[in-house]
């Protein structure tokens, strides 16, 4: 029996996906532990987005197995059921409710979790307020709680959306290029924020910004042509000649 610190949360084995004969994923195998944050890097077309698509049920693999949280076979489930199991996905472009305040955005996300619209028309209960306060603290937007989302900076919108995902209490968060378009200060704050989230959740971050990946300080998986080319610390993969050839040396 393995202890909680070595528990597997997400398990991909031999996963392949072809688009018109082109293998976007080619026998991909990947294991993410419960409570782990992992960075995924790789050149354009390496299969990073497709990897997230097969985990979230957007794309069905041609072959291979994907298990989540023990023995739940994700290849048998649709997108909605997979989201309900506790897999949240943050796309590159922030999609917040522009004309609602920061607070209301978080409240809507909490209400969405309960799946009831009635919640929108009554005052929130105290536990709900506490959770919103807590989320505001994590995403560092406490002082901007009453600001309309439209007036937030790009980075702040990304954090708000991360907070909205957290409101749904995912076990695993898939985050696509969070640092894209951010200032250096925002990039640094985002690394801190994800590190804090990873204390409680598993997080998979796809990213091109190597400074950001280094700041995360976690195990890195390099994808190339739909499978794992190299894996290890950022220093290990940065010195791997195969990684330099296909990705870093360009
Ligand atoms: N729905 C699709 N139909 C056809 N080809 C696709 C589809 N989705 C992805 N591909 C192709 O599969 C390959 C892998 O794409 P994917 O988007 O997973 O790569 P990526 O690593 O996320 O790249 P990037 O860093 O540019 O986002 C690419 O060559 C892409 O053109």
TrEMBL record:
* CDD domains in alphabetical order: ABC_Mj1267_LivG_branched
Q: Which Gene3D superfamilies match?
A: P-loop containing nucleotide triphosphate hydrolases (3.40.50.300)
Instruction: Fetch the SUPFAM superfamilies from UniProt.
Output: P-loop containing nucleoside triphosphate hydrolases (SSF52540)
Q: Taxonomically, which superkingdom?
A: Bacteria
**Keyword Lyase annotated:** no
Residue ranges the record marks as coiled coil: none
The entry's cellular-component GO terms read: plasma membrane
Task: Show the PROSITE patterns listed in the entry.
Answer: ABC_TRANSPORTER_2
Q: Which is an annotated GO molecular function term of this record?
A: ATP hydrolysis activity
Keywords of this entry: ATP-binding, Nucleotide-binding, Transport
Q: What is this protein called?
A: Urea transport system ATP-binding protein
Species of the source: Bauldia litoralis
Classification of source organism:
Bacteria, Pseudomonadati, Pseudomonadota, Alphaproteobacteria, Hyphomicrobiales
